[in-house]
Design brief:
3 helices; 320 residues; mainly beta; 6-blade_b-propeller_TolB-like; Neuraminidase; four-stranded antiparallel sheet; glycoprotein; Strictosidine synthase; hydrolase activity; single chain
């Protein structure tokens, strides 16, 4: 199933700073996000934007990207500048869980999930380009993304996968037997098996996506995995990725100095554990650009963006 339907916006909630790159919902339907000045915010009252309460629950001193809410209420935070962190929203205390992997400083920690046994998995998008130069990595197609695992009590993450094309969002399967990894630069979702005879192996899960997948979200275990598409497919970029590395490096240097404005076409997908696309929601000429995350809260879809200064609340499709 790949029939497109409209992504219907309902309301917009302005935040104190721009770039709510990831959004996650807590059991009470409140949304947590991180913005560019390092603050972690919690938004309550999605149904009434003028009365919505936006409160600061912490500050990491870096640039928060991917978030994961733990059963005890703490929040895992990927700091693009400093590694993997754990934040207590009650008192704002921040602990560093990992700053390096395989003897190398974590340059671009991107997204994170925690499984029931306490094991944490997270991605590094690039070992070449920092967050501010993300477009350079997509153009150069460096293939230096990683998937890492941090076992309970460990300080040193284990590298599980290398060579990923801008590794980004993560989500577990309903039964915990595999992880879904978004490879933004390859326009695909990859499956990494955690159990069974093929444990430790990776394979394509959903390929040739209509855009560039960013963060992933799974709420209830029996619910779908939501995929944020940061932008529609750019055919010239597909052609460039087939060029020689030297050509791609030159193109990346040019891209870093060129003005950038996100496409006005936005979209999100929902997929199941068989790799079937359940929903494909799109909106052309959208005023809310560069959707980098999506979650479900209070029966709505909530969108985050690295570009915008707020979050968008949209209609959720009927369950399939």
């Amino acid at each position: 199933m790949d029939r497109r339907t409209a992504l219907v916006p309902l309301r917009y909630i302005t935040l104190p700073d721009h770039g709510p790159e990831d959004v996650v919902a807590d059991p009470r339907g409140r949304v947590l996000t991180g913005v560019s000045d390092g603050r972690i915010l919690r938004i309550d009252g999605l149904d009434d934007p003028p009365a919505a309460r936006v409160e600061r629950v912490g500050e990491i001193g870096g640039r928060p990207l991917g978030l994961e809410l733990l059963p005890d209420g703490d929040l895992l935070v990927c700091d693009a500048d400093g590694g993997l962190l754990r934040l207590d929203p009650d008192d704002g205390r921040v602990r560093v869980l990992a700053e390096s992997a395989a003897g190398e400083r974590l340059r671009f920690c991107s997204n994170v999930v925690a499984l029931d046994d306490g094991t944490i998995y997270f991605t590094v998008s690039s070992r070449v380009h920092p967050l501010r130069d993300w477009i350079g990595d997509l153009v150069e197609h460096t293939g230096t993304g990683r998937l890492l695992r941090l076992a309970p009590g460990d300080r040193a993450p284990e590298v599980l996968l290398e060579g990923l094309q801008f590794a980004n969002g993560l989500a577990p399967s309903a039964d915990g037997s595999f992880l879904i990894v978004a490879e933004t630069g390859a326009r695909r979702l990859t499956r990494y098996r955690l159990t069974g005879e093929r444990a430790g192996q990776a394979e394509p899960f959903v390929e040739n996506l209509p855009g560039y997948p960013d963060n992933l979200w799974r709420g209830a275990p029996d619910g779908p995995v939501w995929v944020a598409l940061a932008g529609p497919r750019v055919p010239p970029l597909d052609l460039l990725h087939r060029a020689a590395p030297a050509v791609r490096r030159r193109a990346a240097r040019l891209a870093l100095h060129a003005p950038f404005r996100p496409s006005g076409t936005t979209g999100v997908l929902a997929v199941d554990d068989e790799g079937h696309i359940l929903h494909r929601l799109t909106r052309r000429h959208s005023g809310f650009r560069m959707v980098t995350s999506v979650c479900e809260a209070r029966g709505r879809l909530v969108l985050g963006s690295l570009w915008e200064r707020g979050i968008a609340v949209c209609e959720a499709p009927e369950s399939k």
